[in-house]
């Protein structure tokens, strides 16, 4: 079972790969040397240290924010108009390549519907994690899905800093778990999508319970419940299609309307 904290990509932490692309003269590191720069400025590896490296780190952080790669040359010698005091005598060109993770889906529960949703979402390119306390179910997840063993979905939800490109859905084995998880989820206003599976009766019951706890109508109105688009879904696979389509539409700001072109639109000239 994998843990989402293993590796920068799996943790969905933006970072940049800095590569020494070319050198001239005396320089601290050879071409091909790499350094990884996290969005918060932490690094793994080095391209030479000192003022030069600190300037590259700042450029890498800016590139992460802009989501654009950068090729830049730094003179490491005195007398240059853009010199910064380095005296190695050479010149270094670095390629800064931001690594921005895509949309992500977190599922509370590892049952039949959750597994179907997880599989389809992962095949659509989402980073998918399933949270459950049943390790046997997590161990049997597709290899492209991360399993997170946690006894309290509520605590897991509250422990994260959610982002606008992340979806969180409650599809657990009973509505008690879903209710407690949703109570935490409605407080995460930064999450791009929050949904809960269930019948109309279940949804209304859970909403009534949360209202009694003081949850506002504004917060409840942001919940997609029952989740999914109305396609008459019945089987786990059909529910997955309905759910993933809605999540992608919401995260990407699309309408999920038909793309059919009317015959009245005319013909290509």
Distance between the termini: 57 Å
**SSE run:** EEEHEEEHEHEHEHEHHEH
Extract low-pLDDT stretches.
1-10
| DSSP strand tally | 11
Question: How big is the Rg?
Answer: 24 Å
Specify the overall morphology.
elongated
Strand content: 15-25%
Describe this structure in words.
The chain is of the alpha/beta class. The protein is built from 8 helices and 11 strands. It has helices spanning 50-66, 112-123, 135-139, 153-159, 175-185, 200-212, 217-220, 236-251, and strands spanning 15-24, 34-38, 43-45, 70-76, 90-99, 104-108, 127-132, 145-149, 166-170, 193-196, 223-224. It has a 6-stranded parallel β-sheet with strand order 8-7-6-9-10-11, with helices on both faces. The chain has a 5-stranded antiparallel β-sheet with strand order 3-2-1-5-4, with helices on one face. Mean pLDDT is 88; it is low at 1-10.
Q: Which properties best describe this structure?
A:
six-stranded parallel sheet, 11 strands, elongated, five-stranded antiparallel sheet, 32% helix, alpha/beta, single chain, 269 residues
């Amino acid at each position: 079972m994998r843990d989402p904290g293993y590796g920068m990509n799996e943790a969905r932490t933006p970072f940049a790969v800095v590569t020494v692309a070319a050198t001239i003269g005396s320089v601290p590191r050879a071409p091909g040397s790499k350094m990884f720069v996290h969005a918060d400025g932490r690094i793994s590896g080095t391209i030479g240290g000192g003022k030069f490296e600190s300037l590259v780190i700042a450029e890498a952080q800016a590139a992460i924010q802009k989501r654009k790669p950068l090729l830049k040359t730094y003179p490491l010698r005195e007398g240059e108009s853009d010199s910064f005091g380095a005296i190695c005598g050479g010149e270094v060109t670095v390629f800064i390549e931001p690594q921005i993770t895509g949309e992500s889906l977190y599922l509370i529960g590892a049952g039949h519907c959750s597994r179907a949703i997880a599989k389809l979402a992962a095949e659509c390119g989402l980073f998918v994690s399933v949270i459950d306390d049943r390790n046997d179910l997590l161990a049997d997840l597709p290899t492209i899905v991360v399993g997170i063993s946690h006894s309290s979905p509520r605590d897991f939800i509250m422990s994260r800093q959610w982002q606008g490109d992340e979806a969180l859905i409650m599809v657990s084995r009973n509505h008690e778990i879903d209710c407690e998880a949703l109570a935490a989820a409605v407080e995460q206003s930064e999450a791009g999508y929050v949904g809960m599976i269930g019948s109309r009766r279940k949804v209304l019951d859970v909403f009534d319970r949360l209202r009694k706890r003081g949850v506002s109508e504004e917060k409840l109105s942001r919940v997609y419940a029952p989740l999914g688009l109305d396609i008459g879904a019945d089987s786990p696979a059909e529910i997955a299609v309905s759910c993933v389509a809605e999540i992608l539409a919401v995260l990407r700001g699309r309408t999920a309307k038909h793309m059919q072109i009317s015959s009245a639109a005319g013909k290509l000239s």
